[in-house]
Amino acid sequence: MADILDLDGFLDHLEGNSYGRLYDIWSGEVSGVGFPSLAGAAGEWQRHFRKLNVESGMPVLIPMRIGLSSVGILLGALQYGLFPVLVKPTTPVNLMCEIVENIGGGFLIATSATTPVFLERGYSALGDGFGDFHVLLAPAGYTPLEMHPPGLVGIPSSGSTGTPKVIIQPFSNLLRNASMHAAAVRLDASDTVVLNLPLNYSYGLVAGLLATLLVGAKGVLLDQQRVDIRRALDAFDATTCMGTPSNVLVNFPVDYLGKVKRLMVGGDVMRPRLASSLLDAMKDAEIFATYGLTEAGPRVATWRLEAERILHYRAIPLGVPLANVRLSLGENNRDGTCQELLIDTPTVMHGYLGDEAGTRAVLERPAGTLRTGDMFEERDGLLFFAGRLKRVIVRGGENIYPAFVEGVVMRFPDIEDVWVTGEAHEGLGQVPIAYLIARKLIDVRVLARELRRYLPSSHIPTKWEQVRVFPVNIRK
């Protein structure tokens, strides 16, 4: 695989590749396109942005459906010189509007179905629609935090302060990280990869989509919210699957996993019990536990599961760092048993949009050492995950920051204080629960229903307890 380190080289690669193919499964229908068609779709979107006289350097929010259309919009926005900010397609309208406000305006890509909702909130449509999509301009009065040079991508991540923030990554970094990942798991053009992870998450975008495109493999874009994954998989002889610890056995039948040659699991800590189950189901396959974070590009380290070490340590090691990545432990420690993981990688982020203090807190200097906030302990020269420095709930591989949820809950009348914390869950690892202090009895069913206007459903506490004072142990 040749080094492809910029957008122009990537588009040339797509145009010149006659073997690779992407299949888009939508509501059970299957359509496939060759890689040159992706470059063509990017060019069509570039011309559409030019026709609308969109100002280059401006941010544009793109809801990243797992499908061909999202790929074309993303590449076209980059080719035109916009700053694409990737969001979950099911993000509530109010939350999307809040993100637009926080980044200082710009544009938003909406479907024909959602466009009227945004128009009611003061957005304006630019020109005619393009297929099923419309380019909408944010309400007047917003001032962009900054104009961006071409080639940058923004990936939102709810900060621990409760304010949505955007991680800025050069697209060249994402390409390089995808190449590093593909080499680590030995992905090549003979593979067929199931692309079922959200494309607004760096793991699904980089380790899934971009890695598949770079090596010239076949990819199957599969949105599990709309398609029965078990039925869809019957149509393809896939070699490679991806998942998180909480969903891999739910999404993929054990008998199907037994047929593939490679499985990549990331996004959260893998427990020994799951690792052993996967090894039993996939006796002739390679199973990789992956570690990373969006700020790092995202992929950092990979470990191929080995039954003997799992049995010995009863834990999964961090694994081998990718090429040109250096891992070390910081001087800070917790209880004298573990230390914070530090990362030096050529694909480290530029920083957090509009948050210099937050950037300096995790990056010593531009392109310097990245503080992860993850604590590890060392045993026999191997690193094992031991917890997180900051308050965070990991639900099925998705980071939920309690302070962000609390900030939304506190907007509602009669609530004096709230504390959101995580509770162990057999399938998801953790789920959010909440303690409320209020002036009167709160109907939590009504509150939860209202919260769905502002928060993803995964962020809404599964249990509520109204108390006079917080239990003494919950803040520990």
From TrEMBL:
Positions of the AMP-dependent synthetase/ligase domain: 48-353
Signal peptide positions (record): none
User: In this record, what's one Pfam family?
Assistant: AMP-binding
Matching CDD domains: AFD_class_I (cd04433)
Gene3D superfamilies from the UniProt entry: 3.30.300.30, N-terminal domain of ligase-like
InterPro entries recorded = AMP-bd_C_sf, AMP-dep_synth/lig_dom, ANL_N_sf, ATP-dep_AMP-bd_enzyme
This protein's name = AMP-binding enzyme family protein
From what organism does this protein derive? Burkholderia gladioli
